[in-house]
Structure formats: structure tokens, C-alpha cells
Design brief:
The protein contains 16 helices and 20 strands. The relative contact order is 0.10. The protein is globular. Helix 3 (151-166) packs across helix 5 (212-221). The protein starts with a strand and ends in a 6-residue tail after the last helix. The chain is α/β, with parallel strands linked by helices. The protein has helices at residues 34-43, 63-70, 151-166, 197-203, 212-221, 229-239, 255-263, 274-279, 293-300, 315-326, 339-345, 358-365, 379-384, 398-401, 419-430, 442-449; strands at residues 2-8, 13-20, 23-27, 46-51, 73-76, 86-87, 93-96, 99-105, 114-120, 129-133, 174-177, 251-253, 267-270, 286-287, 307-310, 332-336, 372-375, 391-392, 411-414, 436-438. Helices cover 31% and strands 20% of the residues. The protein folds into three domains: 2-239, Metallo-beta-lactamase, Chain A (4-Layer Sandwich); 251-345, Rhodanese-like domain (Oxidized Rhodanese, domain 1, 3-Layer(aba) Sandwich), CATH 3.40.250.10; 358-449, 3-Layer(aba) Sandwich (Oxidized Rhodanese, domain 1), CATH 3.40.250.
Length: 455
């Protein structure tokens, strides 16, 4: 018997492969799914079943790709009209050697959500673990804001799923959710990826309620950000995406070739560090540091948009492609051969974005005519502490709210550490702002330097 958890960076998405004897199943596979077959081959088993806990909103599910690769059958909940796979319902059971998997319908996050209860029948048919999808996380529960016209109803459904179905399985039952800390599918998840129902019952803040009505009121009052690409993911994951024959293989492009593609409408995505982008970058490019692609590409890229890459090193191309494919962007045409140095020696123009030391920011904010300090963190972060006089616009909403930024003075972009701030700076430059600076270190540095922080 074996159990493997696969953590997909950036999205904080968790998938699983579990098997015994000669067969195995996978829960919520990602799109670049060869990893599951590699594990199955090492363990000497055949992947026969693929379970989707729900229609995912934040990434393209890899079920169709994995089914094409292995011949496995796909199963998902019955309260949504999927165009592929088979329906599984409450009480259905599946056997994999000594492993028994039983289906629970656990709606709330979505109507068709299911959880999978696992038992090791060599010892007992009592629950050992449960795959909870987006119903129950470690430190939080699933968001219920996808159906605003049914806000109280779906929050009530989630309460019933949690308190009438999942928690009664037993305090010792281990939980395996579909996401961990950093996911947009919850807001208070723990950084650890292991827990039990008993621990969550006692310490998960979302479960510390006196009754169903209190739970509903808390869920209805929550505020979550919804990236525009979620709608595209919902369509993909309802229809089922055609399997990829292989991951895109961007070709190296000379500065001349890249310029020609940009003229045709290609978006140039610069995945280098904030420090590198600040020093020199190609005008019109969008900065998203490599590890932040899964979380933020979906806010700014259009479906089917041709994409070119600027990378720190050639090995970053493959990682960038994987990150983009996971959130539905497959049209990656090429990367700048020999990087920005090739662009510079070709004689083409480049820009730089001045970096502002947090200590100097502290001084400038005290002047009579301070710059606009643009804080692009999430509202929950701002509520915990911000610099006086800062203007808050969440990064994902910046392209549609840039008219709120005064144009008569410089703008300093600011976040938790400078990673998101460089994305914001590149967006402002693309939108015609000329006096833009990036505060490297941002809030982390300000805390060390003793900046005045208010909440």
C-alpha cells in the first residue's frame, strides 16, 4: 500500500495518488500529469480510477489527460452536467486491494462537491482518512461565494456537509484537502499539510460556531477575490479539455523575431526577479516573477493570448510553461534567446524602474509633497497593518482601477516584500505612467526599519 501527495507550487494545489495490490487511484490531478504515471510505474500498479472532488475554479484539471495516458475512468459528483467521465453518488464504494474508498456528497463550496472516505480493510472498515476537496481545509473551510444569489443556502449546505457528514467520521480520521496555504480558495489555511478531524474540530477557526445560523452569517460576510480566469477554468473543467499531446515547447527567438511577434500582438511576460526587472526591462512587458505565475497570470492574461517569455536562465522556460499550462495558457510561442543581454546589444530600447529603499521611503513620506504610495496587497493584509496615507488597490484589480491613482506625482508600488509590487509597477508602465518606483522589501523591510504602521 502506498500514498503520495503532490504539491503544485504557486496554486498550493494538492493532489494524491494512492494504491495497493495492482491498482491505484488519483484525486484531483493537475494538467501536467506524467508525475502520476511515473509514481504508478515505480510502484508497479495501474491507475484505474480518477476522482474529481469538484469542478475546480483555479486550475485546469488533468483528468482527461491522465485518462488518455492510462485508460483510467474518471468519476465526479452528479449535481453538475459534466461532458465527460462517470457520475458517482453518496455511498458508492471502490476497492483497490485492501483500500476501500466510499463517496460522500458534501455540497456547499460547489453543488457537486464530493469527499472520499478511505479505509484500510486489512485492519478495519472504519474511516482512516478522508479527501475533503474544497469543503474542509486545514485551518479553514471552503469559500461559498460562487453563488451570490444563493448565499445563505450554499453556506448552509456547507455547514451540513461539515457537521453532519465529515466531522462525525471520527476525531482520529486524517484529512487531505485539495489546497493548502496560499490558495485563493480559502483565506486562513495553515502552512502545514497534515491534520485530523478532531484537531480541526477543536482549533479550526471556521468551525468554532455555536450553531448553523452563526456559521451562515460568517460565510456570507466573507470577502474573497475572484480572478477573471475562474470563469474560463469552470468552462474547461465542465467540458473537459482535449488531452495535451505534449507540453508546449517555446522556441528561442532573437530580439528581431521577438519584436516582430510583439507587433503581431504577443504579450511579453518577464519572469525574472524584481531586482532584475527594475534594472532593465523591455517596454510594454509584464513582470510576473516565476513563482508567482500560478497565482497572478490569470488576472492579467487573456485566453489564447500568444505569450513570449523573458527568463533569468533557460531552465526557467520549462517551469514557466508548466505554471501557465496549469491555469489554461498553452499558447507560449517562444523565449528571448540569450535573455535581456541579447536585447541590449541589439540596440533596442529598454526601460528601468527605480528601486526605492524602504528607509528612504520613510523619509519621503514625511515630506510636504510625498509620492503616492500604492499598496497592492490583499485587503486582509492591509487590515493587519499599513503605512499611513497609502492608497490601497488590490493588485488583481489594478488594471481596472488605475484611474484612482493621482497622475500629478510619482507612484511608489508597495506590497509585502516587493514581489507583487514589481508586477504593479510593470502594469502602470504599460498603462502610461512614467514616474513609477518600486519599493523593494516593502512591508517586510518597513517593519525592520521601524516605519510607522497603522491598522
Amino acid at each position: 500500500m502506498f500514498f503520495k501527495k503532490i504539491h503544485s507550487e504557486g496554486l498550493a494545489q494538492l493532489s494524491y495518488i494512492v494504491g495497493d495490490a495492482n491498482s491505484a487511484f488519483v484525486v484531483d490531478p493537475r494538467r501536467d500529469c506524467e508525475i502520476y504515471r511515473e509514481i504508478a510505474d515505480r510502484e508497479g500498479v495501474q491507475i484505474t480510477h480518477i476522482f474529481e472532488t469538484h469542478r475546480n475554479e483555479d486550475f485546469v484539471i488533468g483528468s482527461c489527460d491522465l485518462a488518455a495516458m492510462t485508460g483510467a475512468t474518471i468519476y465526479h459528483g452528479g449535481r453538475l452536467d459534466f461532458h465527460y467521465g462517470e457520475i458517482t453518488r453518496e455511498g458508492d464504494q471502490f476497492e483497490f486491494g485492501a483500500i476501500q474508498v466510499r463517496v460522500l456528497e458534501t455540497p456547499g463550496h460547489t453543488d457537486e462537491s464530493i469527499s472520499l472516505v478511505l479505509a484500510d480493510t486489512d485492519f478495519s472498515r472504519e474511516p482512516l482518512a478522508v479527501f475533503t476537496g474544497d469543503a474542509l481545509f486545514i485551518g479553514d473551510v471552503g469559500r461559498t461565494d460562487f453563488f451570490p444569489e444563493r448565499a445563505e443556502e450554499v453556506a448552509g449546505l456547507l455547514y451540513d456537509s461539515l457537521f453532519d457528514k465529515l466531522l462525525p467520521l471520527g476525531d482520529g480520521v486524517l484529512i487531505y484537502p485539495a489546497h493548502g496555504a496560499g490558495s485563493v480558495c480559502g483565506s486562513g489555511m495553515a502552512t502545514r499539510e497534515f491534520s485530523s478531524l478532531g484537531f480541526e474540530r477543536r482549533f479550526n477557526p471556521a468551525l468554532q460556531v455555536q450553531n448553523k445560523q452563526e456559521f451562515i452569517q460568517k460565510k456570507v460576510a466573507e470577502a474573497h477575490y475572484t480572478p477573471p480566469y475562474f470563469k474560463q477554468m469552470e468552462k474547461f473543467n465542465l467540458k473537459g479539455q482535449p488531452p495535451l499531446a505534449r507540453l508546449p515547447r517555446p522556441r528561442p527567438l532573437s530580439p528581431k523575431q521577438m519584436s516582430a511577434e510583439i507587433e503581431k500582438g504577443l504579450l511579453l511576460l518577464d519572469t525574472r526577479s524584481p531586482e532584475a526587472y527594475s534594472g532593465a526591462s523591455i517596454p510594454g512587458s509584464l513582470a510576473i516573477p516565476l513563482e508567482m505565475i500560478p497565482a497572478y497570470a490569470g488576472w492579467f492574461l487573456e485566453p489564447d493570448q500568444p505569450i513570449g517569455l523573458v527568463v533569468q536562465q533557460v531552465s526557467d522556460v520549462a517551469r514557466a510553461v508548466r505554471y501557465l499550462v496549469r491555469v489554461g495558457y498553452e499558447n507560449v510561442l517562444g523565449f528571448l534567446d540569450e535573455g535581456l543581454h541579447a536585447w541590449e546589444i541589439s540596440g533596442k530600447s529598454y526601460q528601468n524602474i527605480p528601486s526605492l529603499y524602504a528607509g528612504d521611503l520613510k523619509k519621503r513620506l514625511a515630506q510636504d509633497h510625498p509620492p503616492t504610495l500604492l499598496d497592492v496587497r490583499k485587503q486582509s493584509e492591509v487590515d493587519q497593518g499599513h503605512l499611513p496615507g497609502s492608497l490601497h488597490i488590490f493588485l488583481g484589480e489594478l488594471p481596472t482601477k488605475q484611474d484612482q491613482i493621482p497622475k500629478d506625482r510619482p507612484v511608489v508600488t508597495f506590497c509585502g516584500s516587493g514581489q507583487r509590487a514589481i508586477i504593479a509597477a510593470s502594469i502602470l508602465m504599460r498603462q502610461g505612467f512614467t514616474e513609477v518606483e518600486n519599493c523593494l522589501g516593502s512591508m517586510a523591510a518597513c517593519k525592520v526599519l521601524g516605519c510607522r504602521i497603522v491598522s
